[in-house]
Design a protein that fits this description.
Blueprint: E1 2-5, E2 12-13, H1 16-39, H2 44-65, H3 72-86, H4 96-108, H5 118-121, H6 124-129, H7 143-156, H8 160-189, H9 193-201, H10 204-212, H11 217-234, H12 240-254, H13 262-274, H14 279-304, H15 329-338, H16 340-370, H17 376-390, H18 399-407, H19 414-427, H20 441-465, E3 467-471
Parallel strand pairs: 2-3
Antiparallel strand pairs: 1-3
Helix pairs in contact: 1-2, 1-3, 2-20, 3-9, 4-7, 7-14, 8-9, 8-10, 8-11, 9-18, 11-12, 11-13, 12-14, 13-14, 13-17, 15-16, 16-17, 17-18
Length: about 475
């Protein structure tokens, strides 16, 4: 082991990892404190600037941490420290958790949240907290999450504070599954555990949206990734009971959000390849995965009492035109030139084209996996990337569908750097406000000025501290 000392930003003192750990923890504290002040309407642009500065500090220290060589255990402990303040923060970056609370009320009232919107089936207090876009729309989530929503409402009696706390507990449990699964997926592809944990699990998008934003994607990803690990681990010796357990876990993830089904295509193709390959085995395994998904779906829908209304509500998120989705950009351009009707027609056409491209891309990826040209984990990361980029809706937390498997398969190099940069940019793209921030542009401009100034000052302090990098 040789220690080489450089000047910042290539280098720091021998205590660099510890310095970065506590700087990131301080950023998480600032983000939480600023968010509470904003939610209490105290401090205005300054409070929001403090929250933005905290987010910027975490992103900065995460990026610098990627240059160091801490062991995986150290990274897990650092993740726990960075998550701790966010566990008691108000909902960050999104108001979706308030939709969960309202949908839980609908279910607890004996109605189907996949068919009845919060505006119809929930109390006025619950509806007032829901984002304006989702008050009149039914839940798009699967029966497993509907059961969770109803159970949380029944346990808390509709108390929003307790409800948010329990949803955060569910998100934390999902994150624990992710922390367990990502290093094991990395081991399958030969990627170092510490690099997979850094890019995948310690990613600021994980902190912001799985813990801070309380998104149910944490549960979906935890079930999907852990199920993938269990199923793939069973294949070398063909442990059918273990493989079945993995398939069931993936199926349960899809009963939170449907994109988790992509992992069934991966493990099904892996099974076909293990049995000798060829298109006949591939098609047979595909039918088996479809049947397994149907059984898990039926069992979850009937056991939870939520029924099958969720199938009709799968298109709910696409009712809002996402400005981040590339498939919507031609429509925005056409709308600006020819008017809103032409723009919406172009958006609809582009979404169909995106769906066709997704199907074609998935077919190509699975074909390469079947022939052994790419690994199962790479296949999962590539297909999830297609769904995110070409889908009708993109939210910052959707990137995690692709980033987590990619973190477990991309070697150190250009593509890993690009994914890290993309994650860092998206981590700062949306201000830490729960809900719509339209009409607050002057406040946001002032807040970003404050935030950038604070992060710039922190950067200069860290630069004066100097850095060291240990090279094996």
């Amino acid at each position: 082991m040789q220690t080489v000392t450089y000047r910042w930003p290539t280098a720091v003192t021998t205590d660099t990892p510890e310095l970065l750990r506590w700087t990131g923890f301080g950023g998480a504290l600032l983000l939480t404190a600023g968010a509470w002040a904003v939610s209490a309407r105290v401090g205005g642009a300054v409070a929001l600037g403090v929250a933005i500065a905290g987010a910027g500090l975490v992103v900065l220290t995460w990026a610098l941490l990627g240059r160091t060589r801490p062991d995986p255990g150290w990274l897990r402990r650092t993740l726990a420290w960075w998550c701790a303040p966010l566990l008691v923060a108000p909902p960050l970056f999104s108001a979706d958790v308030f939709s969960y609370l309202a949908q839980g009320e609908v279910a607890a009232n004996g109605l189907d949240p996949n068919a009845v919107s919060p505006a119809v089936g929930a109390s006025a207090e619950a509806v007032a907290r829901v984002g304006v876009y989702w008050r009149e729309t039914p839940s798009p989530y699967g029966p497993l999450f509907t059961t969770v929503e109803r159970a949380i409402t029944e346990v808390t009696g509709g108390d929003p504070v307790l409800g948010i706390g329990l949803y955060r507990l569910v998100a934390a449990l999902g994150l624990l599954l992710v922390v367990w699964a990502v290093p094991r997926l990395a081991a399958m592809t030969g990627v170092q555990e510490r690099t997979a944990l850094w890019l995948g699990v310690m990613n600021p998008l994980v902190l912001w949206h799985l813990i801070g934003g309380v998104h149910n994607d944490a549960l979906m990803l935890g079930l999907m990734l852990s199920g993938t690990v269990v199923a793939l681990d069973a294949l070398p010796e063909l442990k059918w009971w273990q493989y079945t357990a993995g398939v069931v876990l993936i199926g349960l993830g899809a009963q939170v959000k449907l994109p988790a089904l992509v992992a069934l295509a991966v493990v099904g193709t892996a099974l076909a390849r293990r049995l000798g390959g060829g298109w006949i085995r591939f098609v047979t395994a595909g039918f088996a995965m479809v049947a397994a998904a149907g059984v898990v779906s039926a069992a979850t829908s009937l056991a939870g009492g939520s029924g099958f209304g969720w199938v009709r509500a799968l298109g709910t998120p696409s009712k809002v035109n996402s400005w981040m989705a590339p498939t919507n950009w031609p429509g925005y351009l056409a709308g600006a030139v020819f008017g809103p009707e032409s723009g919406q027609a172009m958006i609809s056409s582009a979404r169909i084209a995106g769906f066709v491209l997704i199907l074609c891309g998935v077919a190509v990826v699975l074909g390469r996996q079947l022939r052994g040209r790419i690994s199962e984990v790479t296949s999962l990361g590539m297909m999830m990337s297609l769904i995110v980029v070409l889908g009708p809706v993109i939210q910052p937390w959707y990137l995690l569908w692709a980033v987590l498997p990619l973190a477990a398969c991309l070697p150190v190099g250009t593509w890993r750097t690009r994914v890290a940069v993309l994650a860092g940019v998206f981590a700062l793209l949306v201000p830490p406000l729960a809900g719509n921030f339209a009409g607050r542009v002057p406040e946001l401009i002032g807040a970003y000025v404050v935030g950038i100034a604070l992060v710039g000052g922190a950067y200069l302090v860290l630069r004066r501290a100097r850095v060291s990098v240990a090279q094996a």
